[in-house]
Amino acid sequence: MDKIYKRLKKKINKQYLKVCNKFGINPIWGYPNILVVEPTNLCNLNCPLCVTGKNMNSKSGMMNFDLFKQSVDIVQNYIEEVFLWLQGEPLLHKNITEMIAYISSKKIKTTISTNGQLINEKMAEQLVLNGLNKIYIAIDGANQETYEKYRVGGSYEKAITAIKLINKFKDQYNVKNPKVYIQFLVTGHNEHQISEMESLAKDLNVTLKKRAIVVTHMPTDKKTANSFLPKDRRNSRYDENMQIRSFEKSGCHYPWEWAVVNWDGAISACGKDPLRTHVIDYITEEYTLLDIWRSEKFNQFRKQLKHNKEQMEVCKTCAPPINAKHHKYVLKK
Ligand SMILES: C[S@@+](CC[C@H](N)C(=O)[O-])C[C@H]1O[C@@H](n2cnc3c(N)ncnc32)[C@H](O)[C@@H]1O
Ligand code: SF4
Q: Which of 167, 226, 236, 260 could anchor a disulfide with 271, C-beta 3.0 to 4.6 Å?
């Protein structure tokens, strides 16, 4: 009964947020539906179209475990899922498997996105045993040469081994989770390998998720941006004039449903703002995530977004997913 009541509460809250967004109800008083937590914005790779990979973070560090717990605790009765990454490589955090176990102990789902380079036997076993629900492992090419065009400093073999190790422990413990996905950023360098990637995923018994690359979220020279854009525009978020394809059509739901906690306790208005141009405020012991979520400043941001999206800097460069509704960013075949 208690379980049904809790689930119902979460569903009602989610619907309330959607109504607020649709009808421009402001201020909102609901709770976030998704919690995004950034364990760290440090990374072991140097991907060329990533703010972290290009060392563009103004400051870097690891999240304090108490801050992590405080962020989860305050919204635990309302969130349906925690996304345990933002910028940076989440598995670099020394407490990452404890974080997963903590979320799982509250019967909340967790997903992680990783470059997979740090998944050895021990890490794979802990990811399987600690209750992770989904893991996206980035493999952007079907061999080392193509893979490292984007995953600079990374090893294709290590990423493949990561998947095999997780599969091994899932079999060993006879569990279904974490569900494993290969996340394939389709670029000009690897678009000819899509069918090879499909076969690879099949051989490894995992799901392939294609994702279109974003090139407008940080200062990048045109040549680099162009070299990563797929020639086949169906795999691109941009048209031939480099205009964002789905900008006009799509609404936005992120600031109504997602609470985004950066490693240092900064609450971003949007999870698609890697340069942190719209930090609402910082969590302290007295000023909680929920206070910030309901603050005048955050509500003002939502209001502006609803009525004046075209004028907002962060939204101008946001390239929403194509062929997808809102945060379902995966491309269809
Ligand atoms: C910044 S990364 C952090 C997580 C982890 N380090 C990783 O790479 O999977 C967050 C997500 O953005 C994806 N990503 C990186 N660069 C991207 C780009 N230019 N466009 C779209 N997605 C990108 C990554 O593959 C990952 O799924
Ligand atoms: S692995 Fe992830 S965080 Fe690291 S540089 Fe690449 S995209 Fe950025």
A: 260
pTM above 0.85, yes or no: yes
Give ligand 1 pocket residues (Cβ under 6 A). Answer: 43, 47, 49-50, 52, 85, 87-89, 113-115, 136, 138, 183, 185, 211, 213-214
Task: Looking at the CA of residue 213, tell me the nearest atom of ligand 1.
Answer: 20
Whole-number pLDDT of residue 248: 46
Average pLDDT over residues 219-235: 88
Sort 29 into a burial class: Cβ within 10 Å, 0-12 / 13-18 / 19+. exposed
106 contacts 72 by C-beta, under 8 angstroms = yes
pLDDT digits (tens, 9 = 90+) for 252-287: 889 999 999 999 999 999 999 999 999 999 999 999
Kindly report the average pLDDT of the chain as a whole number. 91
pLDDT at 326: 34
pLDDT at 322: 54
Burial class (CB in 10 A: 0-12, 13-18, 19+), 96: buried
Ligand 2 centre and the CA of 235: distance in Å?
A: 21
**Ligand 2 site-directed mutation target among 47, 60, 137, most atoms within 8 Å of CB:** 47
Q: Is the pLDDT of residue 332 over 70?
A: no
Could you check whether the bond before residue 178 is cis, i.e. omega within 30 degrees of 0? yes
> Which two three-digit tokens encode residue 289?
């995530």
Which atom of ligand 2 is closest in space to residue 151's alpha carbon? 6
Coil vs helix vs strand at 248: coil
CB half-sphere exposure, 153, CA atoms < 13 A: 11
**Cα(42)–Cα(63) distance, rounded to whole angstroms?**
11
In angstroms, what CA-CA distances link 148 with 139, 170, 188, 211, 214? 9, 28, 13, 17, 18
Task: Please give, one letter per residue, the 3-state secondary structure of 80-147.
Answer: CEEECCCCCCHHHCCCHHHHHHHHHHCCCEEEEEECCCCCCHHHHHHHHHCCCCEEEEECCCCCHHHH
- What whole-number distance in Å separates Cα of residue 192 and Cα of residue 188? 8
Q: What is the pLDDT of residue 274?
A: 93
